[in-house]
């Protein structure tokens, strides 16, 4: 069996695919794309992909937007499915829609290295600008997957946050309500009773890198 066949079998056996939203242009950061901000010696997008993989996601789809060509050139994203979101300036909702379409096989996505496949049972959605949320929190949320109807969210002192696991049965509903910067917020609010909350406050810090002040959280 070839290495490609081994990888394909491993991926097919894992129904949870990592979905990293990394399209933001960093408007309040002087126009620096968040994906390319440096943290621990690598671009944030690399850091986030590594965390998803360490959490157990064999497959990772990455939604790119602002300066997508520069991100492709500067970041090591081998094996990821790269999804272009030409509407990234409309907000996170457009990136979530593009990512879910890619997972469902209805959108555009190119794997760095080989062809891509779908058939995922759930997406573990993570944001590139939250480096304080690493593999331990992602793994906890991922472990809540049961089937395509699963809805699982990290919680911090009982308050829902990221990452979020969206079972495939919910993707169409999420996409229909994902507008502006709300992402899946409206859909999750409507389905609050179905969400399994997983406390992650002891293993992660849910800050965002949004402004110059927030750059203090990035490490050399």
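Q: What amino acid sequence fits the structure above?
A:
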């Amino acid at each position: 069996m070839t290495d490609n066949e081994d990888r394909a079998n491993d991926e097919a056996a894992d129904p949870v695919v990592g979905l990293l939203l990394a399209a933001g242009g960093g408007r309040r950061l002087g126009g620096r794309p968040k994906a390319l901000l440096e943290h621990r010696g690598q671009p944030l997008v690399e850091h986030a992909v590594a965390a998803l993989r360490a959490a157990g996601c064999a497959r990772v789809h990455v939604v790119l937007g602002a300066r997508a060509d520069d991100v492709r050139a500067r970041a090591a994203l081998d094996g990821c499915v790269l999804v272009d979101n030409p509407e990234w300036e409309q907000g996170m909702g457009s990136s979530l829609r593009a990512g879910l379409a890619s997972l469902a096989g209805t959108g555009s996505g190119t794997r760095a290295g080989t062809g891509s496949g779908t058939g995922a049972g759930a997406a573990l959605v993570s944001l590139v600008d939250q480096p304080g949320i690493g593999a331990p929190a992602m793994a906890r949320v991922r472990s809540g997957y049961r089937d395509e109807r699963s809805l699982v969210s990290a919680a911090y002192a009982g308050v829902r946050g990221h990452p979020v696991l969206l079972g495939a049965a919910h993707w169409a509903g999420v996409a229909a309500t994902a507008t502006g910067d709300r992402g899946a917020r409206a859909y999750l609010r409507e389905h609050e009773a179905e969400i399994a909350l997983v406390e992650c406050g002891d293993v992660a810090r849910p800050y965002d890198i949004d402004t110059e002040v927030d750059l203090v959280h990035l490490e050399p």
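Q: And what stands out in the fold?
A: Residues 21 and 137 are 17 Å apart (CA to CA).
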